[in-house]
Automatic annotation (TrEMBL):
SUPFAM superfamilies according to UniProt: Fe-S cluster assembly (FSCA) domain-like (SSF117916), P-loop containing nucleoside triphosphate hydrolases (SSF52540)
Xref: CDD domains: Mrp_NBP35
GO biological process: iron-sulfur cluster assembly
Protein family (similarity comment): Belongs to the Mrp/NBP35 ATP-binding proteins family.
Organism of provenance: Glaciibacter psychrotolerans
InterPro entries listed in its UniProt record: FSCA_dom_sf, MIP18-like, Mrp/NBP35_ATP-bd, NUBPL-like, P-loop_NTPase, YlxH/NBP35
Official protein name in the record: Iron-sulfur cluster carrier protein
Gene Ontology MF annotations: 4 iron, 4 sulfur cluster binding; ATP binding; ATP hydrolysis activity; ATP-dependent FeS chaperone activity; metal ion binding
Length: 386
């Protein structure tokens, strides 16, 4: 086979190398600089987006493997350089697909379904449910992103294993790669994740942020983070009815809301309030998830550690005056597997999928995944003639 023919084949093989952060073939990202083949030896020049790109080693190894798997190539060498400023700029424009810089891709005309996960009080398992739902949806083949906007307890990176343990045994969230003004969200279990915790080293700092700062941060997450085309975007909100919930309501008024609560009837008041605030900003409530619903015992009985009926009560109250009732989407039992999966960074829907908590969360994921995309709420771009 001629060198030119082998050269073509190497290029074709490189189309199978996916940038792990951007999740597109490197050939589409103009990362392949050159391919030369001589006497069965291929030399591939690749351009990384930035110096010290965390995905560099993986891309290099994948390129080497792709080149050496081509018939006619005995061995290969990979030469790595870094994009110039202009090349980076061209790439970010290409990824934005011509959309204006700093526009929110999740506006009312977007095909991405947005779910804001909220709760009345803290510690009810909102982040755990969000992380598991995201992973369960991605496992079904959907393109999923999570924005962790829980300024008081940004736990999503830890729940998904996106932690950097190299610094003195600490568990700081990994830092996202930045290409020009574009932020590439780290990917875990096929879910693209961005978190306030990825931008600060001192967790105490963000908690003191005031409303405008929080608003700017959420807005920046929506405009500057490259999620690509998503089927579903989940937002993990801080508990309660504070500034972030209101900002998200303003920035994503067409989002649907999932209210997480516990079986404790006393928690129903605050959970109901968080739903009402969401509704006031134009969002609609898709359903209630009751978490920590009973502890299965070895004799088959269930111990209602946190009482019972809280989820149904919140759903009943949020249904008042609505055309269609707000359903309880699931009752997720207390589960050691769910807790330990979160601690280990591998959500229970992957680590122990037959655990009853995993099964309950998967049922919600199934419901979200198969939900028809109605045109309700989408602007038709026409106005009646008067
Ligand atoms: N069903 C469950 N069974 C056992 N443990 C659970 C369950 N749900 C959540 N947990 C545990 O409860 C703790 C709180 O969960 P999580 O951080 O998800 O709550 P949260 O509502 O997001 O809290 P906050 O909003 O305050 O950050 C975690 O340690 C988690 O592992």
């Amino acid at each position: 086979m001629s060198d030119a023919r082998v050269n073509e084949r190497v290029l074709a093989a490189l189309a199978g190398v996916i940038d792990p952060e951007i999740r597109k073939p490197i050939t589409e990202l103009d990362m392949v600089d050159s391919v030369t083949v001589a006497d069965g030896h291929a030399t591939v020049g690749i351009r990384l987006t930035i110096a010290g790109c965390p995905a560099a080693a993986r891309i290099e190894a994948d390129v080497l493997h792709a080149a050496e798997s081509v018939t006619g190539v005995g061995n290969a060498t990979v030469e790595v350089t870094v994009m110039t400023r202009e090349q980076r700029q061209a790439l970010t424009e290409k990824l934005r697909g011509g959309a204006a810089a700093r526009s929110n891709p999740f506006g009312p005309d977007s095909l991405t379904r947005v779910y804001a996960v909220t709760s009345g009080k803290g510690g009810v398992g909102k982040s755990t449910i969000t992380a598991n739902l995201g992973v369960a949806l991605a496992h079904r083949g959907l393109r999923v992103g999570i924005i962790d906007a829980d300024v008081y307890g940004f736990s999503i990176p830890g729940l998904l294993g996106l932690v950097d343990t190299s610094v003195g045994g600490s568990r700081l969230a990994v830092k996202p790669t930045q290409v020009g003004e574009m932020i590439l969200p780290p990917v875990a279990h096929d879910v693209k994740v961005i978190s306030i915790g990825m931008f600060i080293d001192d967790p105490a700092a963000a908690v003191a942020w005031r409303g405008p700062m929080l608003h700017r941060t959420i807005s920046q997450f929506l405009t500057d983070v490259y999620f690509g085309d998503l089927d579903i975007l989940l937002l993990d909100l801080p508990p309660g009815t504070g500034d972030v919930a209101i900002s998200v309501g303003q920035l994503l008024p067409h989002a649907d809301v999932l209210v997480v609560t516990t079986p404790q009837p006393a928690a129903a008041d605050v959970a109901e309030r968080s739903g009402i605030v969401a509704r006031q900003t134009g969002q609609s409530i898709y359903g209630v998830i009751e978490n920590m619903s009973g502890l299965p015992q070895s004799d088959g009985s269930v111990l209602d550690l946190f009482g019972s009926g809280g989820g149904a009560e919140v759903a009943r109250r949020l249904s008042a005056g609505q055309d269609s009732p707000v359903p309880v989407l699931a009752q997720v039992p207390l589960s050691v597997s769910l807790r330990s999966g979160g601690d280990a960074g591998t959500p229970v829907v992957l680590s122990d999928p037959t655990d009853p908590a995993a099964v309950a969360i998967q049922a919600v994921a199934q419901r979200l995944a198969t939900r028809a995309r109605g045109l309700a709420g989408l602007s038709l771009g026409i106005s009646p003639r008067i």
